[in-house]
Write a structure and sequence with these properties.
Layout: H1 2-114
């Protein structure tokens, strides 16, 4: 019986040592998981902040682009209007020139018939 008692005590000592090692391992795993979770949360917060900043920048850029497009459209309309006015004035000037040339030819013919 003494041998049985000794073996039982040895088994209990081994189980106690194994239990101690398992607890240490579990504590290390829990610590590692806690640190990993903290890093993940930090990264998630940073990503959220970057996303918000990016969104704000995109909105600013979109507003700036819209402003430039509106200015460009105003300039295009003014250019079209100015081009139409120049074309109308050129057409009027051509008509006036043609009228002056016709009168000049008429005056020339009249002086040729007289003289």
């Amino acid at each position: 019986m003494g041998g049985l008692s000794e073996r039982a005590n040895d088994t209990i000592v081994r189980f106690t040592a194994l239990n101690e090692q398992t607890r240490k391992g579990a504590d290390q795993v829990a610590t590692h998981l806690s640190e990993t979770t903290a890093r993940y949360e930090s990264s998630a917060i940073r990503m959220h902040r970057l996303s918000e900043e990016s969104s704000a920048r995109m909105k600013e850029m979109a507003a700036e682009i819209t402003t430039h497009i509106e200015q460009f459209e105003s300039l295009r309309q003014a250019s079209d209007k100015a081009g139409a006015e120049v074309q109308d004035r050129a057409a009027t000037a051509m008509q006036n020139l043609q009228h002056v040339l016709e009168r000049l030819l008429s005056a020339r013919e009249a002086t040729n018939t007289i003289g």
